[in-house]
Automatic annotation (TrEMBL):
Claim: Secreted is one of the keywords in the record: no
Protein's name in the database: Aspartate aminotransferase family protein
PANTHER family linked: AMINOTRANSFERASE (PTHR43094), AMINOTRANSFERASE CLASS-III (PTHR43094:SF1)
Top-level lineage group: Bacteria
Keywords: Aminotransferase, Pyridoxal phosphate, Transferase
Transferase is among the record's keywords: yes
Cofactor: pyridoxal 5'-phosphate
GO MF entries: transaminase activity
Gene3D superfamilies linked: Aspartate Aminotransferase, domain 1, Type I PLP-dependent aspartate aminotransferase-like (Major domain)
Matching SUPFAM superfamilies: PLP-dependent transferases
Family assignment from sequence similarity: Belongs to the class-III pyridoxal-phosphate-dependent aminotransferase family.
Organism: Dongia rigui
Length: 456
């Protein structure tokens, strides 16, 4: 039993927690059933306050790329806390961990990126980018260029601006979002919307929607386009190969800045260090978080392309920043995390070995009565549950069957997430083929139990 589990019983922890507000939580339900109390984690396993050992196929929230319980990370954080626990990077100041991390990120990221700005989360990083985009166009004497186009069902975070960039209706509702200056187009979701088109045809058609929206708004009013290379929270939507090159062309044609939100995709998730590489995205900004520290400390980084930085730097003070921008402990942890990812060849393994093996094993679910499509790239994947495999018809109401399946996963000590009726996985990159085999067994139990519940 872990130390925290010994201190209190599950019921006691739940009673202390019950009244408080949690992210993305139905509080009436939380009050009724109480929270799951996670007390410890090791490798890819979580342990709860009842002593259950749970396979985390979601790497926390798509973030614990190196797995839990890495002692060297704790050692680095400990040493940094003793040496310089805090200092800021405001007003022409710096410190060794932030300078070293910036050098590393510039070396690792695509060649146009030679400038880094730090935040604490993916959300505030995207907020900062919007601020930089506005500043850029104002300095370029094109102040009308304000609107940012993004995709319905995209996810870019939870601040007011990040949620406006995102295309989640359930986040816009009740909060009067999106804010002015945001427009959305449909996502490149071939399985759901492709109809009789090939993926390649559909990819071009989905990109053309960007051009249509620019023409509708007037290019002189449009500042930028933002997208996740693969949409994560929206359901691991992997665009056809034709999509991003066409988007890139359109951004160039109409003079839009291009923002690649690599918060999930970055640091090896897709079998590439950054997904901009396989999708051929040459962005002006790249948003990084999650895998940057594998979630051990909060940190985000914005990579700013030379052509943008030159303009931003042509003016005086950039009056923006957070007390904890470039926090020394977070930066030290990020450096050690990147060392582990590189030294243990996690990206190469996800590309050459575990990624292809996961894709092959997921194919087995295609024969399952509930499963319409499986898709994956590297170690991020989805199992789409449908009512009718032939027509791709979804269940009504959407989301119910996904929730049933997710609950069966939890009952069997497996963490997968459900978006609508799509089961999502994004495990730590230290997964071996053995972990994939273990996952397949547990996922099959959950799928079979779900099929039984819905009478299939
Ligand atoms: N962008 C993407 C693509 C994300 O998936 C997320 C979080 N899931 C964010 C931004 C927001 O990051 P954070 O939760 O750290 O604010």
């Amino acid at each position: 039993m872990t130390a925290s589990a010994k201190r209190n019983s599950t019921a006691e922890w739940q009673a202390q927690d019950r009244k408080h507000l949690h992210p993305f939580t139905d509080h009436a339900e939380l009050g009724r059933i109480g929270a799951k109390v996670i007390t410890k984690a090791e490798g890819t396993y979580l342990f709860d306050s009842d002593g259950n050992k749970i396979l985390d196929a979601f790497a926390g929230l798509w973030c614990v790329n190196i797995g839990y319980g890495r002692k060297s990370i704790a050692d680095v954080a400990h040493a940094q806390l003793l040496e310089l626990p805090y200092y800021n990077t405001f007003f022409k100041t710096t410190h060794p961990p932030v300078a070293e991390l910036s050098k590393l990120l510039v070396e690792m990221t695509p060649k146009q990126f030679n400038h880094v700005f730090y935040g604490l989360s993916g959300s505030d990083a995207n907020d900062t980018i919007v601020r930089m985009v506005r500043t850029y166009w104002n300095l370029k004497k094109q102040p009308k260029k304000k609107t940012i186009i993004s995709r319905w069902n995209g996810y870019h975070g939870s601040t007011m601006v990040a949620a406006s960039l995102g295309g989640m209706n359930y986040m816009h509702e009740l909060a009067d979002l999106p804010l002015p200056g945001h427009a959305h187009i449909k996502q490149p979701y071939w399985y759901g919307d492709g109809g009789s088109q090939t993926p390649e045809e559909f990819g071009l058609a989905a990109a053309k929607l960007l051009e249509d929206k620019i023409l509708e708004l007037g290019a002189e009013n449009v500042a930028a386009f933002i997208g996740e290379p693969i949409q994560g929270a929206g359901g691991v939507i992997i665009p056809p190969s034709t999509y991003w090159p066409e988007v890139q062309k359109i951004c160039k044609k109409y003079d839009l800045l291009l923002i690649a939100d690599e918060v999930i995709c970055g640091f090896g998730r897709t079998g590439y260090m950054f997904a901009s590489e396989p999708f051929q995205i040459e962005a002006d900004f790249m948003t990084l978080a999650k895998g940057l520290t594998s979630g051990y400390m909060p940190l985000s980084a914005i990579m700013v392309a030379d052509r943008v930085a030159e303009v931003l730097n042509s003016f005086g003070d950039f009056n923006h920043g957070f007390t904890y921008s470039g926090h020394p402990v977070s930066c030290a942890v990020a450096i050690e995390n990147i060392r582990i990812i590189r030294e243990e060849k996690m990206v190469e393994t996800a590309h050459d070995e575990t990624g292809p093996y996961l894709a092959k094993r997921l194919e087995e679910f295609k024969d399952h009565p509930l499963v319409g499509e499986v898709r994956s790239m590297g170690l991020v994947g989805a199992i789409e549950l449908v009512k009718d495999k032939k027509t791709h018809k979804t269940f009504e109401p959407v989301g119910k069957v996904g929730t049933i399946c997710r609950d069966h996963c939890v009952k069997n000590n497996l963490i997968m997430r459900a978006t609508r009726d799509t089961m999502l996985l994004s495990p730590p990159l230290m997964w071996t083929k053995g972990h994939i085999d273990e996952f397949m067994k547990l996922a099959k139990i959950a799928l079979d139990a779900t099929a039984k519940d819905v009478g299939l």
